[in-house]
Amino acid sequence: MTEELHIVGGGMAGSEAAWQAARHGVSVVLHEMRPQRGTFAHKTGNLGEMVCSNSFRSDDDEQNAVGLLHWEMRAADGLVMTTADRHRLPAGGALAVDREPFAEDITGALRAHPNVRVSHEEVTELPDEGQWIFATGPLTSEALGAAIARETGSEALAFFDAIAPIVYAESIDMSQAWMQSRYDKGETEDERRAYLNCPMDRATYEAFVDALLAADKTEFHEGETAGYFDGCLPVEVMAERGRETLRHGPMKPVGLTNPHKPEEKPYAVVQLRRDNALGTLFNIVGFQTKMKYGAQTEVLRMIPGLENARFARLGGIHRNTFLNAPTLLDDRMRLRSRPNIRFAGQITGVEGYVESAAMGLLAGRLAAAEMGGGSLAPVPQDSAHGALVHHITGGAEAKTFQPMNVNFGLFRPLEGLRGGRKGRRERYKAYTDRAKAAWTDWLATQAPAAAAAE
């Protein structure tokens, strides 16, 4: 095969797409404009850099849809999951990683692959010729965004993502805070002590909410509207929705016992999760924010245990651009108006590191098969990958399309199972069993091509 596959964007989706295509014998040019041109959120020129949380969320492949997506990506020799497992940090039932060595490892693996060439220039147009995958994510450059808008005939949809602050561990007062996962979840002692907890009584919580509401916030540019993805709401926006919202969200006090005051139940709890293998950095879980920097330090130091906190990174907010994929993409993730172009990752309207990488995995395999003169069988809708790609390429209502995490609501129902909350465990296990079988069968149809590429 002499034709090259061009992939634009070296985040989770682009990196995974490049890996999958390269392993199937395709020559790949991976275009990543960093470090020649930076972004608000990125700090390095590494591929696969994590700019928000360091968590891939639940790793439970029997009772959680994102955990099932982990399982499917591992079964497909996914680069992102394989690398995440090597740099795993204790996080209860979640999969969290040491972000810097994770990105360095992703970068090293792709640069070392004989079928991959990395190019550091900005792509600003949609090419008329060649095979392309655009995986530019939430920070698509202004020039490329304008080119996409011209081609699709409408302005790109957008919402806003917010980034959580990171705290130096040595600056946390452990005479007030303690280490514990909710309900002591985890198979090892490290997992059961994966989160750092800062308790609040009612008066402290009420004062904290007041401060959040009064804090100086980032203003939007003229013409921008403050639409947010619900899974990444700024903490102050949650507070605006009701004074008890945080207590029933990221600050819920359930499943935790304060060893400093075991007889006193906290009114609310702020949790921090380890952000690196050394345990020197912790990010504040669920505390994405659009507060200005000065206000952030003042408000966050109201949290018991963080009175003297020093911040390795403060929170921020950025625009996230995505396509109305149900109207623009076919079931092979190709742009209907230009079938030589595929899109993958967050720009297609999926949300989250894992979902983005999963769409990259599919785009890379689909492109490789097409370039080899063949065509893969349709991605099975009963798999997690299939449920997600079906949703964004036709299953969702185009008029109300919004970014989506993978969830069991996207799966086709199973007959004969008990509905409601009480039947949920059995139902989810049936979904995951069906998905694993469908995904394994689909991968088996590609095994000869993958083996030949190796």
UniProtKB/TrEMBL annotation:
Gene Ontology molecular function terms on file: flavin adenine dinucleotide binding; tRNA (uracil(54)-C5)-methyltransferase activity, 5,10-methylenetetrahydrofolate-dependent
Keywords: Cytoplasm, FAD, Flavoprotein, Methyltransferase, NAD, NADP, Transferase, tRNA processing
Pfam families: GIDA
Cofactor(s) required, per the database record: FAD
Keyword Hydrolase: no
Highest taxon in the source lineage: Bacteria
GO cellular component, one term: cytosol
Keyword Amino-acid biosynthesis: no
Signal sequence interval, chain numbering: none
Residues in MnmG N-terminal domain copies: 5-371
Coiled-coil region list: none
Entry's EC annotation: 2.1.1.74
Reactions catalysed: uridine(54) in tRNA + (6R)-5,10-methylene-5,6,7,8-tetrahydrofolate + NADH + H(+) = 5-methyluridine(54) in tRNA + (6S)-5,6,7,8-tetrahydrofolate + NAD(+); uridine(54) in tRNA + (6R)-5,10-methylene-5,6,7,8-tetrahydrofolate + NADPH + H(+) = 5-methyluridine(54) in tRNA + (6S)-5,6,7,8-tetrahydrofolate + NADP(+)
InterPro entries to which the protein is assigned, alphabetical: FAD/NAD-bd_sf (IPR036188), MnmG-rel (IPR002218), MnmG_N (IPR040131), TrmFO (IPR004417)
Record's subcellular location: Cytoplasm
NCBIfam families with a match to the protein in the record: gid_trmFO, PRK05335.1
Protein's job: Catalyzes the folate-dependent formation of 5-methyl-uridine at position 54 (M-5-U54) in all tRNAs.
HAMAP family: TrmFO
Full protein name: Methylenetetrahydrofolate--tRNA-(uracil-5-)-methyltransferase TrmFO
Organism field: Roseivivax jejudonensis
